[in-house]
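User: Is it possible to get a 3D structure for a protein together with its bound compound? The compound here is adenosine-5'-diphosphate. I've pasted both below.
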Amino acid sequence: MSVVALGESLGLLVASRIGRLELVPTMDLGFGGAESNVAIGLARLGVPTTWMGRLGDDALGRLIERQLRAEGVGVATTLDPAAPTALMLKERPAAGASSVVYYRAGSAGSRLAPEHLDLAAIGEARILHVTGITAALGEAPRAALDAAIDAAHAAGALVSFDVNHRSRLWSHAVAAPEYRAIAARADVVFAGEDEAELLTGEREPEAQARALVALGAAQAVVKLGADGALGLVDGELVRQAAFPVHAVDTVGAGDAFVAGYLAELLEGAPLAERLRTAAACGAVACTAPGDWEAAPDRAAIARLLGG
Ligand code: ADP
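Assistant: Yes, that's possible. Here is the predicted structure of the complex:
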């Protein structure tokens, strides 16, 4: 196994309206979650990947497990008989901003604890990928995240950390020191501009990357949306422009980007190449709706890069 992605995966009910009780013309059932999005992104790039987390022993949990496996992702989860799978209701309106409602507290994913980890799978991985969402879900998931990092360190695996701050889950004041502590134990840190500012207090991406490295991670990547990204490794600073695409849904771009970066890291590619593939993955992921559905395979990246 090359990568273990630890964290949440939750059901997604996407309707053309949520809120008032009324007839809605469309309703789709799917799933998503930052870490399982990254796992699918990696699998599509040909990287053997396992998603590790907790699902409820219910129809939604079994659906997610089946679909992850159908995407070529290994699943290291125990189905929790006592807690349901987390669910997110998402509105996809014809125009305007969408609303999102979560059921998370008390979900199986929120009860992830150290004893649920498959330490053998982490021991075999070359990279463990974690996000701040897992830390924000509560004390037990936070402890699981630390135990997973311990196992990765013991096995000599790299630790990849995408901050993925969710202000609804965690206030800035509580989250910032926790993220800094995780970053200090990671080898690669990914952060959006706002997240990097939250961790470092810096406002400018280059200063943010330097401050992230000063926290202890050898590699820092600041994701800048349609402005591209910036990476810093061993004092080498590389800027990567975004690839121009017709973006219809940018949700999941960051996860596809991370998958592209980690896939190239495993290949031993230099920083510029890691960022280029990552940006290509992020760009392609924007071209169709969905959280992971548009994550590219190698052929789709080649098409984008080829012109
Ligand atoms: P996140 O989804 O974590 O907030 P970003 O929005 O920064 O992350 O997106 C990650 C990467 O995806 C960016 O660094 C960029 O390379 C690519 N990307 C994001 N939005 C666009 C866009 N509109 N057009 C092209 N590429 C994009």
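The longest strand covers residues 49-56. The chain is about 40% helix and 25% strand.
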